[in-house]
Amino acid sequence: MNVKRLIIWFLVAVGLASAIAACQPTQDKIVIGTKNFTEQIILGEILAQQIESNTKLQVDRKFNLGGTFVCHNGIVNGQIDLYPEYSGTAYTTVLKLPVITDPQQVFEKTKEEYMRRFNLEWTTPFGFSNGFAMVIRGEDARQYNLKTLSQAAAQTPKWTAGFGFEFLNREDGFPGLAKTYSLKFAQAPKVLDLGLLYRALQDKQVDFVGGNTTDGLLSSQDLVVLEDDKRYFPPYQASAVVRQDVFQKHANLRPILDQLGGTLSEAKMRELNFRVDGKKEDVKQVVKEFLSAS
């Protein structure tokens, strides 16, 4: 009888412990992804610290994942909850819509289509546009008096180009750019790691590279961004893409992320990129100081 009572008490205790555990709040987790370049990692960290500072949510950082489609597939498949994206990239590369140049039209159409096709939402834009920048050495720009892509086209048959893998293949990338400006290089463009573009340019391994307008190193080296005088590139407003069910589950998350809207100018983003890329400062500290001052 004592053994039977012991078993009964044990089962009651186990059941009670299970009930208590079931009533305990579980720590929710938000998974943030980013693409594989400095600005994305900075933006991912800004989103992470913003969430950690204003909610009790745990943030799992899945940074440096890869290109656009890696992140897009990750969020569509539920492997990540949000990541930073650019309106023009989403509009042309993911949605495959014909290029238009009005920033508001691009953003609104992208926002509408992402909800309709993928159940994904866009937060209020951070405040800057990070477009593609076709960059040459300052010495070449001065020697040939080059300011625009149209002017540079006459020199490209003597030059070697270097681009990231994605730019070589995307809808708004090199194929369309080459056609628009009749760019013909001495050989097929080299595929370069995005972090090595400007080093390769300075070391004269290449003469023409595809960077971004907010790259920090642009303001610290003798480099010239060629004007897109035919307006080939669409606008690329930066924002966060978030799964709709995440906002449904965490109603307070949307206004917290929207607080970041308009806080980053192109100059400020370039400064943050330079602190990490040029000065080799710690990303978390750079972001912490930025958010404290915002």
TrEMBL record:
GO terms for molecular function: transmembrane transporter activity. The keyword RNA-binding does not apply. The keyword Metal-binding does not apply. CDD domains: PBP2_Opu_like_2. One of its GO terms (cellular component) is ATP-binding cassette (ABC) transporter complex. Keywords: Signal. Residues 28-292 form the ABC-type glycine betaine transport system substrate-binding domain. Residues 1-21 form the signal peptide. This is ABC transporter substrate-binding protein.
